[in-house]
Amino acid sequence: MRHFYSLNEFSSEQIGEFVNRALAFKENPYSEVLDHRQIALLFLNQSLRTRCSFEVATRELGGDVSTLDAETLFALETEFGKRMDGASAEHVKEAIGVFSRYFSALGLRSFARGEDQQEDLLDKTFTTFLEHAKIPVFNMESALYHPCQALADLVTIKELFQDFQGRKVTITWANHPRALPMAVTNSALLAMTKMGMHVTLAHPEKFELQEGIMNMAGDFAGESGGSVEVVHDRLEAAADADVVYAKSWGSLLRYDDPAAEQDLRDSLKDWVVDSEMMSRTRRAYFMHCLPVRRNVVVNDDVIDSNRSVVLQEAENRLHAQKAILEWIFS
Ligand code: CP
Description:
Layout: H1 12-27, E1 38-43, H2 49-60, E2 64-69, E3 76-77, E4 90-91, H3 92-102, E5 105-109, H4 117-121, H5 124-132, E6 137-139, H6 147-161, E7 168-173, H7 183-194, E8 198-202, H8 211-224, E9 227-231, H9 234-237, E10 243-247, H10 258-266, H11 275-279, E11 285-287, H12 300-303, H13 310-328
Parallel strand pairs: 1-2, 1-5, 3-4, 5-6, 7-8, 7-10, 8-9, 10-11
Helix pairs in contact: 1-6, 1-13, 2-13, 6-7, 6-13, 7-8
The structure holds phosphoric acid mono(formamide)ester (CP).
Phosphoric acid mono(formamide)ester (CP) is lined by residues 47-50, 141, 149, 289-291.
C-alpha cells in the first residue's frame, strides 16, 4: 500500500521521474490506470485547484471520484481515549475505516490549525488518518506539507529551464491579512533544495520556518549541490534570481501571542512583490501557488506580466497529480 505524504521520502531521481511522467501526461492526458477505481477526496479546508485538478485527473485516468467537505460530514474527533460528549460526533478511526470499505484511495486536506504548535508540528490530523487507513492516503495539503503543489512547481520549472541544477530561486514571504500555514513554503523549499537549486529564503525577522524544516533543507542542499540561505531584505534577496516564488505564512509567534503576531504582520505591508523587486532579478519568472491577493502579495503589473507563470503552475497540478495517482496504483 503506497501512501503519498511528502516528497521528502523520495530520491531526486524518483522526483525527476514524477516530473517526467507529469510532462508525459501533459502530452497524452488519458489513461485507464485507475481501472474504474473509486477515489475519495476529503477536504477539511477550502480549495479550488486541488479539488478540481484531482477530480479531472481521476476521471481522465479511468476512475471515479467522490468529493466530501467538512461542512457535510459529522465533526471528526482525532483524540483517542476521550469521552466524545462535545462537538465531534464521529471518530476519525471509524471514518477512515468506513472510507476504506468503499474507496480504493483517499486524498485528505487538513491545514495547520495554528492553535497548538505541537499538534501542527506532528501533522496530527493527517498522520492519524495515515495510521488507521486500510487504503492509500495522499496528501492534498497537510499542516506541514503540500507535495502536490511542490511537484507541480518542479514541473513548471523544468518546462521553463529544462533542468533544476544551479538555478536560483528566491522564495519570498509576502504580506497577508491572515496568518497562513507554512505547508506550501516548506514543500517548495525542500523540493527545490533536493533538486540542486540555490534557494534564497526571504522573510522578515520572526517569520522563521520551523527549525526541523530548515535543517532538512540544509541537508538536502548539501547532498544535491544546491544551497539555502536566509535573507531579511526582500530587494537584496531578489538579486540575480531566475524565479521569484511568493508565499505568505504566519509567524510562529501566533501560537503564543496571536494579537502580537497580527500587529507584526500589519506593520509589514511593504513585503509585496513589485516591479522594483523584479527589476533586481535576471528577468525572473513569477510563481505563486494561488489563490493570491492582488496588490497585497503581488502587484497587478507583476502578476499580469509575461513573466508570470501562475496559471501554468495551476495547470501543472493536473498533470503532476496524475503521476502521483499512477504511482500509488502501480
Ligand atoms: N494551490 C492550491 O492548493 O490551491 P487550492 O487551495 O485552491 O486547492
